[in-house]
Amino acid sequence: MKRRTAPVTATLMMMGAVVPAGGVDAALRQTTVPGAYQPADPVPFHASPEPHPDPYYHLSSPVSAFTARGEEGIDAYYYMIYSYGARTLNDLRNELGDKQFYQSMQTWFQEQKFGIATTKEFIDTMERTSGKNLDKFFEAHRVYLSDQE
């Protein structure tokens, strides 16, 4: 299976990281262990406006829910987590407004740096810092916390 690098680029760009002039592939080639997989040409990245058509898949599904279905699940993972996940974050930015979204994200990064966090903690931070109840927003974007409890 080909390694997909577009999500790395999108994630780095969303986090405000500097992507080297040669792109993420060039950076990965410089840091990859000799003999390890070398990335293919990057796949163009486009955030998906809709979640995966199969309701079995959602943003809070554990990775095992995707991998249990083999290649179909891996493709659905890429689609839901990287493509639709990016769309969900952009929609959250629109919901909160740029200023509040970036303030909330800065708080999130400061509180969670070097740690392992849950989706529930992310939502709690977004709600606490914005003063908004985001239950309906996340439910509409197929983020279900019951899968993580």
From TrEMBL:
GO terms, molecular function: metallopeptidase activity; zinc ion binding
Signal peptide span: 1-21
Transmembrane segments: none
Gene3D superfamilies (UniProt xref): Neutral Protease Domain 2 (1.10.390.10)
Domain of life of the native organism: Bacteria
Record-linked InterPro entries: Peptidase_M1_dom, Peptidase_M4/M1_CTD_sf
Protein keywords: Signal
Domain Peptidase M1 membrane alanine aminopeptidase positions: 60-139
Protein name: Peptidase M1 membrane alanine aminopeptidase domain-containing protein
